[in-house]
Amino acid sequence: MEDPLAQTVRLEGARILATLIRTVGDLGIAEDAVQEATIAALRDWPASGVPESPRAWLTVVARRKALDLIRREGLRDRKEREATELFDQTAPEPTPEPSAAALPDDQLRLIFVCCHPTLAPEARVALALRTLCGLGVEEIAAALLTSEPAMAKRLTRTRQKIKQAGIRYRVPTAEELPARLAAVCGVVHGLYTAGHTRLTGDALIDVDLCAEALRLARLLRGLLPGEPQPEALLALLLLTEARRPARLGTDGEPVLLADQDRSRWDASAIDEGLRLLAGSLDRTGGQADPYQLQAAIAAQHAIARTAVETDWPEIVRLFDLLMSVQPGNTPAALGRAVAVAEAYGPAAGLAALDTLDARTPDEHDHRRLAIRAELLARTGRFADAAASMRRSLAVPLPEPDRAHRLRRIAAWELGGEKEGREGRRPAG
Amino acid sequence: MLYAALIYTPDLDFSEPENASEWLPQYAAFRAEAEKHIAGGKALAPTATATVVRVLGARGGEVVVSDGPYAETKEALTGFYLLDCADLDEAVALAAKIPGAWHGAIEVRPVASFSQPQPE
């Protein structure tokens, strides 16, 4: 768990960064300056006490560090003069604090730069974690399963592209907004998904990407309150996150949705998610976007008091709508097959999965094989089920998931003893 | 800022009448629309006319000349523009109007600036 002081420092640091970039005109220098200021805060505050306005304290220190950095990097000419002038202009009072009015605009500008469509998707996620969440390079590398030097290099290249290719810090025009907003929401959603299905559960540095994604979704929704997409995204994340307390058993093994203790779901997150979803749907007048549809699916689970009360035909209908707007969404196709099986029986579910088989195997293939195994077992084909589950183990998996699948195989192989006499089907 | 918009399309000979009648009016329309941003640009003759020149070792070394484009690829450099734009967003929006964008793809590259400090 991150300690509260460290978290305050990190989040206040991320907040002042947006404004500092405008002042110094350089993302890298602003980032380094804020980092040095937060290190100073973590060193001084435990002894001196938290200052009355942490933000003002960090701002003053970060500005001084930025000026030092500009000098140290030997940008002595025009640039330093410009920066000094800017500092003087924007720092008339002894304790300058970024004006509350300018902050939202600065943050929006930074968000739209970090999630610019001309940056590589992985670079957007990394930069968002660095600048919007204030995470260190080491933490980002751990969270995104790469090495620290590789991450540092990626961040440096990304900053260079922003600067040299002329990506400007500005809020998109109304005309550009839908496409640009989709890119931003994609970064936040990707971050949440990465946290939700992270490949290793035993990283040394545990960064809660889901919490960071939720924070960003809230920030975005707060900055653009009239837009339906961030509202639907926040609804989706809340409705998914609400189930988190029940998702893992006492020994860390995944608990299937049907077996989860629904009293452990976060009722206030569900309420908020449902309210946001309704608000978002009102704004779009019934023409649903992918986040609204995914949130509506999560909502169907959230409002079912028991697993058997789940309205599976409605969930199938929502998945059909989702697939009609996102035909290439493989996780959605897998979710749909599960819903079809629940609504209309395992044979129908298997038929739905078979339409996916023709596609090139991708990173979701292990999930397809695992789902197929469960559905085969339900039709009594235990040997086939075990074979399919075995094939699903060919990729690296989080240890609890791997253990769960191995237990299923063991159970089916026991069940398959009886079946053996009736003639086992060939594997695969 | 100056950007190069490098046009990569299937190899194209603009001197052939059917190519000329298909593409030249579209490029003329782009030129008319983007006039104030166009700081330069040319269409290139087909890759069959290309020659690659290398000097081995260092300056003054042996000159090796060979036939053909630098790289044999499905899509070739068939033309370029120099675009004067406020920022990358504007350059991308303009590039999307170059006919080569729907015939192939446009690579948008900022022109190097030497007044900036050297990269880290």
Provide the low-confidence segments of chain A as ranges.
85-96, 418-428
Shape of chain A: elongated
Helical residue percent band of chain B: 25-40%
Number of spatially distinct domains of chain B: 1
CATH topology of chain B: Alpha-Beta Plaits
- Would you tell me the overall average pLDDT of chain A? 85
Work out the strand percent of chain B.
Answer: 25-35%
What CATH first level of chain B would be assigned?
A: Alpha Beta
Main beta-sheet strand count, sense and barrel state of chain B: 4 strands, antiparallel
Instruction: List the strand order in the largest sheet of chain B.
Output: 2-5-1-6
Percent helix among the residues of chain A?
Answer: 55-70%
- Helical region count of chain B? 3
Distance between the termini of chain A: 44 Å
**How many β-strands of chain A, per DSSP?**
0
Quaternary form: heterodimer
Work out the number of β strands of chain B: 6
Rg over CA atoms of chain B: 17 Å
Q: Which ranges of chain B are low-confidence, i.e. pLDDT below 50, for 5 or more consecutive residues?
A: none
Largest sheet of chain A: none
What would your notes on this structure say?
The complex is a heterodimer of chains A (428) and B (120). Chain A has 428 residues and is mainly α. In chain A, 68% of the residues lie in helices and 0% in strands. Chain A has helices at residues 4-24, 27-48, 54-72, 78-90, 102-114, 121-132, 137-143, 148-164, 177-196, 209-223, 228-241, 267-284, 290-303, 312-325, 330-344, 346-357, 365-378, 382-391, 399-421. In chain A, helix 1 (4-24) packs across helix 3, helix 3 (54-72) packs antiparallel against helix 4 and helix 5 packs antiparallel against helix 6. The two termini of chain A are 44 Å apart. Chain B has a single domain (2-110), classed as Alpha-Beta Plaits (2-Layer Sandwich). In chain B, the strands form 2 sheets. Chain B has a 4-stranded antiparallel beta sheet. In chain B, strand 3 and strand 4 (63-67) form a beta hairpin. The interface between A and B is medium-sized, with 15 and 16 residues.
